[in-house]
Amino acid sequence: MKNVSSIAAISLVSSLALFAAGCDRTPDEPEVADPMVTEPSVSERMDDAANETRSTASDMGDSMERRADQAGQAIDDASITATVKSKYLLDDTLKGLQISVDTVQGVVSLTGTVQNDAAKELATQIAQGTEGVVRVDNQLTTQ
Description:
- Helix content is 57%, strand content 14%.
- It is of the alpha/beta class.
- It folds into 2 domains: 73 residues, no CATH class; 67 residues, Histidine-containing Protein, Chain: A, CATH 3.30.1340.
- Strands 1, 2, 3 and 4 form a 4-stranded mixed beta sheet that branches.
- The radius of gyration is 29 Å and the shape is rod-shaped.
């Protein structure tokens, strides 16, 4: 899907650049040769347009890649959060507790109340054992 979008964007930019390269002449304007000014040849203008197109397409590709990475990170964070919550539901000590889990760039934040320090430590260990977790910020309080 990313390749199709990139190809479409490159094609569009190429077409616009080539169109723009040919738009600076109108049929009503007489050609007046100025011996002091050398106009670029059609070949040079086409090369310039192609270079400009490549540069623009590269910039667009970089931008699209950054946005795809950001979207991918958001999906990864949501997956981590769901996995940690699922593990808490499967654990007999933590399943009935109101533990809030939030993940940003792989950092899992835990908030809520647990019955003791052992439950708090268990919540940290389970979160840390989840794939993709960079760090756990355990803000759980004990009753």
